[in-house]
């Protein structure tokens, strides 16, 4: 039951884990194949899975009530499915397979962290060593596992999980990115360890595990260390890029230094998360913005702080998220609270990252509150 609960809870945490569930279920069935109590055990696994995923059911029930019945509920579900835009990827089936293979390679070579924080690929030292150790060796282990007994069930599980994430990429295409594919990495590390164990079993020499760890783990550790230091050096030199830049940190720290009661608004994705962590949740925030909401906050005696990406489109990962760069002048006029303080936070190279707009509740020149 506990295993089923953890599987269900993982799916609730993020739907992409549903692509790992078939492998978990098949492994459980295989483990129970000789059990006289397998039907009861399987039933408890299913019950545990349902309990783990039950927050979904509760959430859907609340949505059903909020949408006013079946028609509204179905319209809500249809709209959410459309936002996934599975068919929006322009790639053909063959191109998706190539894309999935690239995602595996980029994940092994740690392309994701450097792209996220630096918007460029930091050259990997000895890339072929990482590819050989994390892809080649587990692949050889899997072939040995298929060809000869005794076999390692764990390697088959690792292969199933690997196929699960690959299936996710094949279905969604370019709708998924490296932060989804990162699950490949722990799977491959586990597969590498299981391959070493399998070789030791076949050679009938447990001592080979120590030899394998030394021969495989030492170069892998050294390459990882070199690559990580190269990225950290570049990160220290540039301070990060875009939403991973220390401009967001400076903005958040300035928010803490301000002593006036404040309510923050973050209509653009990506700013509020760092702000919430750095300010330790001390400043209430909303992830939407309307001039009416800002005015209500100001009339209650609190400053209104707006964090946006206007004027900072260049260098952002998805500039299309900024729907209307001209919206700020309209909002300022509609808040009717005078001219706010506007601060542009920039990367160390001068590229703007975001704008902070603060209306002071103490501002005397404004339309009176109702």
SSE layout and pairing:
Layout: H1 2-13, H2 21-31, H3 38-52, H4 54-66, H5 70-84, H6 93-108, H7 111-118, H8 127-147, H9 153-172, H10 178-181, H11 184-203, H12 207-238, H13 246-257, E1 262-265, H14 272-278, E2 285-286, H15 291-299, E3 303-308, H16 327-335, E4 341-346, E5 352-359
Structural shape:
globular
Number of domains: 2
Count of beta strands:
5
Tell me about the biggest sheet?
5 strands, mixed
Please report which band the strand proportion falls in: under 5%, 5-15%, 15-25%, 25-35%, 35-45% or over 45%: 5-15%
Alpha-beta classification: alpha/beta
| Helix-strand pattern | HHHHHHHHHHHHHEHEHEHEE
For the residues shown, what is the average pLDDT? Answer: 88
For this entry, give a set of tags:
alpha/beta; five-stranded mixed sheet; 2 domains; 370 residues; globular; 7% strand
């Amino acid at each position: 039951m506990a295993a089923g609960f953890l599987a269900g809870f993982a799916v609730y945490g993020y739907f992409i884990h549903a692509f790992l569930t078939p492998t978990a279920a098949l492994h459980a069935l295989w483990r129970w194949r000789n059990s006289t109590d397998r039907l009861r055990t399987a039933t408890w696994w299913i019950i545990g899975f349902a309990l783990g995923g039950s927050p979904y059911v509760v959430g859907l029930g609340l949505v059903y009530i909020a949408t006013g019945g079946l028609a509204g509920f179905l319209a809500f579900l249809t709209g959410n499915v459309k936002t996934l835009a599975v068919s929006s990827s322009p790639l053909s089936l063959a191109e998706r397979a190539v894309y999935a293979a690239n995602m595996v390679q980029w994940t092994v070579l740690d392309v994701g962290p450097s792209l996220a924080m630096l918007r460029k690929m930091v050259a990997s030292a000895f890339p072929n060593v990482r590819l050989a150790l994390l892809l080649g060796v587990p692949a050889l282990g899997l072939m040995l596992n298929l060809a000869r007994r005794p076999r390692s069930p764990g390697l088959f599980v690792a292969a199933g999980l690997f196929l699960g994430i690959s299936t996710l990429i094949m279905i969604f295409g370019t709708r998924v990115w490296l932060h989804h594919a990162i699950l490949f990495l722990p799977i491959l590390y586990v597969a590498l360890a299981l391959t070493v164990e399998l070789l030791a079993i076949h050679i009938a020499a447990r001592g080979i595990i120590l030899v394998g760890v030394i021969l495989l783990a030492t170069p892998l550790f050294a390459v990882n260390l070199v690559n990580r230091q190269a990225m950290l050096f570049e990160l220290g030199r540039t301070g990060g890029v875009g939403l991973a830049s220390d401009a967001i940190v400076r903005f958040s720290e300035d928010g803490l230094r301000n002593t006036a009661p404040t309510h923050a608004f973050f209509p653009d994705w990506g700013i509020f998360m760092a702000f919430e962590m750095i300010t330790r949740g001390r400043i209430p925030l909303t992830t939407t913005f309307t001039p009416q909401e800002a005015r209500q906050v100001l009339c209650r005696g609190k400053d209104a702080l707006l964090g946006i990406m206007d004027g900072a489109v260049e260098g952002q990962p998805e500039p299309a998220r900024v729907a209307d760069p001209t919206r700020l002048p309209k909002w300022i006029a509609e808040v009717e609270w005078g001219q706010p303080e506007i601060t542009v936070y920039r990367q160390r190279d001068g590229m703007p990252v975001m704008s902070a707009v603060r209306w002071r509740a103490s501002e005397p020149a404004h339309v009176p509150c109702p």
